[in-house]
Write a structure and sequence with these properties.
T3SS_YcgR_PilZN, 6-stranded antiparallel beta sheet, c-di-GMP, alpha+beta, Flagellar brake protein YcgR, Thrombin, subunit H, 6-stranded antiparallel β-barrel, 21% helix, 5 helices, 267 residues, Pnp Oxidase, Chain A
Amino acid sequence: MLVLMSQGDTSESQLDHDADHLPEGDERYLLRNKRQIRGLLRQLRDQRAVVTMHVAGRDMAVPTAVLDVDEDDDCLILDGSHNETSNRAIEDAKYLLCYAQLERVNVRFRLEKAVRIERDVHVAFHADLPEAMYHMQRRESYRLETPITDSPVCTIRQDEAQGGNLNLQLRVIDISSGGLAVSLTAGMPLLEPQRTYRDCTLQLPDAAPIALPLTVCSQHKQTLPNGSEGFRVGMQFSDLPRGADESIQRYIFRVDRQRNARKSGVF
């Protein structure tokens, strides 16, 4: 039986927005296959992961755990709280927003209704399987800050027919399997949010250039090390060509390995 978690200042409406309206590109991590959903829930059960339930309409967070996953009835059993007020709030809620981690990878899902039951003389809750689960894979979520002396270079081009001449050669400041970020300095033209720039090239050190489309996902003002202002632009890989993912992973692994070796004094 789990204890009540301290209530935070996160509003229910914001939590609802986070769960139901994922950021641009996050559809890649939304699982709808029931077999995969059952598998993730079983992992939460087997690892005894703490699942934080946010009660709809209440500024209340209650820790729970997955006790069982019933494949025949497509349902799961969640632990109740020793606090009766929390149990009543869960029972009365129209829906519950659930957050957990599996090996430091975020998992979240929504339960439409939880029915109070008794299990081994303790309060528990029965709920239908979620229709979908958000699960960001570890390799996608790991983002490498690139070294200044060994950085990839991203070239973004656009001609008049595509909306105006553009030919930017930018240092990649961080990179993952899912995308990259570049830095725009003062005087450079800003990129259009949510636009896909189709004529781009990613040049990794010691590798062949990769031609690919890039979609602008975010653009934030930042202060550069020299004190001037610029913009950090996050871009998503829209359609990587064959072999590109492996090349990016090799670069990330090599830089990471070299950094770890320096920290351990190997060189």
